[in-house]
Amino acid sequence: MKFGVFMAPFHRVGENPTLALERDLELLQWLDTLGFDEAYIGEHHSAGWETIASPELFMATAAERTRHIRLGTGVTSLPYHHPFMVANRMVQLDHLTRGRVILGCGPGALASDALMLGIKPERQRAMMEESLDAIVRLMSDPEPFSCKTDWFEMNEAVLQLRPYQDPIVPVAVASVESPAGVTLAGKHGASVLSLSVPRDTIRKTSLAELWTIAEETAAEHGKTMRREDWGVVMGMHLADSKKQAIKDIKEGAANVVTEYFGRTLGNPVPDVPRDQIVDYMVDHNQWIVGTPDDCIAGINRLQEITGGFGKFMMRVEDWAPRDKIHRSYELLARYVMPHFQGSLDGIKISNEWASERREALQQNRYAGIKAATDRFDANRN
Q1: If we measure between CA atoms, which residue out of 181, 54, 84 comes closest to residue 128?
Q2: Of the candidates 265, 268, 297, which has an alpha carbon nearest to the alpha carbon of residue 280?
Q3: The domain 2-341: what is its CATH number?
Q4: How many Cα atoms are found within 13 Å in the side-chain-facing hemisphere of 237?
Q5: Which residue, 184, 182, 293, 178, is CA-closest to 242?
Q6: Residues 6 and 315: beta-carbon distance below 8 Å
Q7: What is the 3-state secondary structure (H, E, C) of 96-165?
Q8: Strand pairing partners for 141?
């Protein structure tokens, strides 16, 4: 299993935005040190909390401060951009990072962004598909081609730079509960980023059903979906005890849910007191909060719900002091990652092997010491 983060990010209104961006970059450096595989960076243009407008600029900066972690747009809101420019920017980043980038794409999450750009919400998902079709064609085929829709046009378009990665920059499509994301992912054989467990706001569905839609669509287009490329995104915070973990984020989590998702965006919020929001979200499989053992159990539970996925992605939250957030990711890297990646198998076998033979090994050790001592005494005499 691979591990990564989905960084919108979320910063409460009222704090220094420059320092918030710097803190986001610092966190990516820490995740790179800890061995995280991927980090997706969001694109938002309004509402005050999610303040990265250009994930590509942020990724270029982060790439200079990290060595291994792969960086994805999380996501590029395709209806907001001409597809030729999206393809050009991503391929350039692909070269600058020596193949560490992923094109994460979606229709655009905030209704306020679409309003400012004059985009009709009912057109966003169709525009996303038209754009990604063109982007994949540009990256995969060096022959110039032309196309025209009601919102963009390309005439004999060709990318000067071919992708650094072979055959193209990897593509991931965001999915929440609409079938649009998984359908588009299936069409192109792209990976899926499930941004939450569906809450049945518009239609009753499940992660398992959405994956089935992706597989069926892929089969219709001669593509194959790989569960190991499926990323499930969830809020998470770990500490040395579950009580401490809940205490760490209780107030910050209530702020995010009530002030941003509720009062700012108008989304439904749990009908519980503020101090019970964390418990509610955990009980409804939206967050994992507790110890590394709780996290292992939560991931296993998600595996059962989904039928199996290959990437566990944590939604980056600014809901606790910096040291506690960093400690949470460290606990996951030290105790959760090895459980799912098999990196402790050899160590455990070696430990058990030595333990089972400890008496014989000690006898051999004493025999060696005694033989050396006897030789010394004999030579001395």
Answers
A1: 181
A2: 268
A3: 3.20.20.30
A4: 25
A5: 293
A6: yes
A7: HCCCCEEEEEECCCCHHHHHHHCCCHHHHHHHHHHHHHHHHHHHHCCCCEEEECCCCEEEEECCCCCCCC
A8: none
Domains of the chain by residue range: 2-341, 351-380
Contact 138, 158 (CB under 8 A): yes
Per-residue pLDDT tens digits of the chain, which is 381 residues long? 999 999 999 999 999 999 999 999 999 999 999 999 999 999 999 999 999 999 999 999 999 999 999 999 999 999 999 999 999 999 999 999 999 999 999 999 999 999 999 999 999 999 999 999 999 999 999 999 999 999 999 999 999 999 999 999 999 999 988 899 999 999 999 999 998 776 655 567 899 999 999 999 999 999 999 999 999 999 999 999 999 999 999 999 999 999 999 999 999 999 999 999 999 999 998 999 999 999 999 999 999 999 999 999 999 999 999 999 999 999 999 999 999 999 999 999 999 999 999 999 999 999 999 999 999 999 987
Q: Determine the Cα–Cα distance for residues 223 and 225; give it in Å rounded to an integer.
A: 7
> CA-CA distances (angstroms) from residue 292 to 232, 233, 338?
18, 17, 11
Read off the tokens for 229.
């490329």
Q: Is the peptide bond before 55 cis (omega within 30 degrees of 0)?
A: no
Whether cis (ω within 30° of 0) applies to the bond prior to 75 is yes
One-letter amino acid identity for 85? M
| Tokens found for residue 77 | 């809101």
71 close to 97: Cβ distance less than 8 angstroms:
yes
Question: Which residues does residue 182 pair with via DSSP β-bridges, in sequence order?
Answer: none
The size of the chain, in residues, is: 381
Asked if 226 and 190 touch (Cβ cutoff 8 Å), the reply is no
Q: Across the chain, which distance is largest between two alpha carbons, in Å?
A: 102
